[in-house]
Write a sequence for this structure.
């Protein structure tokens, strides 16, 4: 069973930056898709950003434009979420997600579902 492990969360002041990391516990099989969700208290979970590895695309879904960016790591089955100019409303638990089998959908299409989820890393933006 492959596990996804996130790191990089924490407490940051408004305007600060954090870089979340995600690594799968195995390098094989290679991921087909990876992404990041977040869920704030009493709010619905939302897809922030994702990529389809073979398509070499990155998609910012609900990621705040100009402030967040997703990237693939040089190491296999790794991904990062760079978050800049953080705001209190960005406070949430951030989850890394992945698929290891081909999907009928691109990563951000509404019908797509991610089969693997990390435990989540908490981000708190507060003065």
């Amino acid at each position: 069973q492959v596990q996804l492990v996130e790191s990089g969360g924490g407490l940051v002041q408004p305007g600060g930056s954090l870089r979340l990391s995600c690594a799968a516990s195995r390098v094989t099989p290679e991921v087909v898709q990876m992404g990041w969700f977040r869920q704030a208290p009493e709010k619905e979970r939302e897809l922030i950003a994702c990529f389809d590895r073979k398509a070499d695309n990155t998609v910012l879904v609900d990621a705040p434009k100009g402030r967040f960016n997703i990237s693939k790591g040089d190491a296999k089955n790794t991904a990062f979420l760079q978050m800049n100019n953080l705001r209190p409303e960005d406070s949430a638990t951030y989850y890394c997600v992945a698929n290891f089998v081909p999907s009928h959908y691109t990563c951000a299409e509404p019908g797509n579902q991610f089969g693997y989820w990390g435990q989540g890393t908490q981000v708190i933006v507060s003065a």
About this structure: The chain has no helices and eleven strands. The two ends are 40 Å apart (CA to CA). The CA atoms of residues 32 and 102 lie 6 Å apart. The mean pLDDT is 94.
